[in-house]
Amino acid sequence: MSPMLEVEAVTAGYGSVTVLRGLSLHVDAGENVGLFGPNGHGKTTLLRVLSGLIRPAAGACRFDGMDLTLASPSEIVTRGLVQSQQGNTLFGDMGVAETLEMAAFTKPARARARVTLDHVYALFPRLAERGAQRAKTLSGGERQMLSIGAALMCAPRLLLLDEPTLGLSPKLKEELAVALKEISTTVPLVVVEQDVELLLALSDRLYLIEHGEVAREMGKDNSPDHQEIMEMYFGEHGA
Ligand SMILES: Nc1ncnc2c1ncn2[C@@H]1O[C@H](COP(=O)(O)OP(=O)(O)OP(=O)(O)O)[C@@H](O)[C@H]1O
Ligand SMILES: [Mg+2]
Question: Of 5, 32, 196, 228, whose CA is between 20 and 30 Å from 71?
């Protein structure tokens, strides 16, 4: 069976700056894949390529048979490859509930919107308590929850998460970690995460990304422990 997501020898960057240098990886159906590596080595850039926000200069990317290098961001979301959005685009004058309802814009997502909304509120009781609150007045951690909730409303078949716990207080981080573990049992993830414990808890398989390439792939049979991952971040493999 071919992988659900396949990235083959992708080269991509910004203008004349090349960031990804022939990067290849795959995600099989139903597995959770973790990405880690030093800052500035291309993890976010890879997710932007997968979401259709950056066109690669070379290489191939396929999701469920769709050529991601030709598809628009909304076609990619409609197909079920959804990234939890960072930044402020989600956080306008609309209320929390309204933001979540609007996020279910694809046909399959609309059909399930009521059930998914209940699921999102069960995962994130803080959002349920703040249904009428304007999204832009949420705290940082609550915004992160709203971003992930909105991504879930799109009925993802593969969910992309870029450092979901970055900058959160220990308490909110713990709440989010519990929800992410729950999500990972029903929706396959590709997750970039700096918290090694959470990264290991969420991932079936890991890729170490360095200098825009996969430097190492680690599966269940050669799964690293916390200490080994830390050495890869800061040791001889470091930047
Ligand atoms: N919009 C942009 N224009 C120009 N260069 C960019 C842009 N975004 C990122 N870069 C550069 O691309 C390189 C890779 O960045 P990227 O954000 O993919 O790294 P990362 O692995 O996600 O890092 P981090 O762990 O810090 O999030 C960096 O050198 C960064 O400065
Ligand atoms: Mg990044």
Answer: 32
pTM of the model: 0.94
Instruction: Provide the residue ranges of all domains of the chain, joining segments of one domain with +.
Output: 1-72+190-239
Which residue's CA is the closest to the ligand 1 atom numbered 17?
A: 44
- At residue 239 the predicted structure's pLDDT band, cuts being 50, 70 and 90, is very low
Q: Which CATH superfamily is domain 1-72+190-239 in?
A: P-loop containing nucleotide triphosphate hydrolases (3.40.50.300)
Looking at ligand 1, which atom is closest to the CA of residue 209? 21
162: left (phi over 0), alpha (psi -120 to 50) or beta: beta
SS3 of residue 26 by DSSP: strand
Q: How far is the CA of 45 from the centre of ligand 1 (A)?
A: 6
Tens of pLDDT, residue by residue over 7-35, are 999 999 999 999 999 999 999 999 999 99
